[in-house]
Amino acid sequence: MNIIPYSNKTLKGLYDISGVEVGQHFYWQIGGSVVIAVRNPQTISTDGQNFFEYVLEFIRDLSKTQIGEEYGPWVPFIGTMFLFIFVSNWSGALLPWKIIDDIFLCWS
C-alpha cells in the first residue's frame, strides 16, 4: 500500500518553486542588496538608503495607525511579516503553482 501519494518527481521538485529554483543564493542576494544599500548611512540619502528608509517608515506608520500608541514592540514583527509576504508575492514563492499542478496531476 502506497501511503505517500506523491511521485518521486514531485518530491524531487520541492525546491523548484513556480518554475524558478529558489535556494540560498536568492536569499543571499536579497540580504546583500540590503547591506549594500545601507552600509554607509549619510545625512543626504543615496537612492538605496532612501528606498529602505521609505519602506521602514511606511511599516512604522502602518503599525502606528493599526495598533495605536503601543506600536513600538510590534514594529519588528509586523515589518518581518510584511516584507516576507511582499517579497514572496513578488518572487512567486508564496503560492508554488508548479508543486500544486504536479500534485493534481499525480491524483488524476
TrEMBL record:
Gene Ontology cellular component list: proton-transporting ATP synthase complex
Lineage top rank: taxon: Eukaryota
Statement: the UniProt record of this protein carries the keyword Transmembrane helix: yes
GO molecular function: proton transmembrane transporter activity
Transmembrane segments: 74-95
A biological-process GO annotation: proton motive force-driven ATP synthesis
Record keywords, A-Z: Membrane, Transmembrane, Transmembrane helix
InterPro entries for this protein: ATP_syn_F0_a_bact/chloroplast, ATP_synth_F0_asu
Record's protein name: Uncharacterized protein
Organism classification: Eukaryota, Viridiplantae, Streptophyta, Embryophyta, Tracheophyta
